């Protein structure tokens, strides 16, 4: 009987652990923008800012026409509610017909966000 109770307790504990983990997950809010107004032919900085997510494991990629751009990333930081934020940026010169995207991969899923010029 003791073995059954221990097994049942472990099963319930494991189930609660999964439920609690799912409740703690929060998808990132994502903003894709440029430092300066988005004008073609003018050097600029493409920025992808993620915030409010948990757990902290996240991947951000900046793409030009589907190819990863050389970029820099800030240090992962957290807010007082233990939600995190992270920013990635790349120097670029937007040209007509090119597409610039930010791909964010998190435990809550992978999503693609497009940058739109100010035209």
TrEMBL record:
Name of one Pfam family that matches: C1-set
GO BP annotations listed: antigen processing and presentation of peptide antigen via MHC class I
Main localisation: secreted
Keywords tagged on the record: Immunity, Immunoglobulin domain, MHC I, Secreted, Signal
Record flagged with keyword Lipid metabolism: no
Location of the protein in the cell: Secreted
SUPFAM superfamilies given in the database record: Immunoglobulin
Domain of life according to the entry: Eukaryota
Signal sequence residues: 1-19
GO cellular component: extracellular region; MHC class I protein complex
Keyword Secreted: yes
Ranges where the Ig-like domain occurs: 28-114
Stated family: Belongs to the beta-2-microglobulin family.
Protein name: Beta-2-microglobulin
Species the sequence originates in: Oryzias melastigma (Marine medaka)
Record lineage: Eukaryota, Metazoa, Chordata, Craniata, Vertebrata
